[in-house]
Amino acid sequence: MTVQADLEKAVAAAQSALGTYETFACSTLDETAKQMFNELSTDMERHVALLRGRLAYVTQNNTMNKPLG
Known about the structure:
Layout lengths: L2 H25 L3 H31 L8
Helix pairs in contact: 1-2
C-alpha cells in the first residue's frame, strides 16, 4: 500500500468519524454531551482538512504520477 492510499483511507475514516460526531450532537438532548460532540466535530473537521492537505501534497509531488522524460 502506498502513502497516498493510506492517506485516502485516513481521510475517509476521519470523514466518517466527523459524520458520527455530528449525528451524535444532533441526536442527544444532553447539553453537555451535545457540546462535547460539537467540539469533537470541530476537531475532526481540522483533522480532515490537514489530511486532505497532506494528500494533495503527496499526490502532487508523487514521482509516480509524473510523466517520464
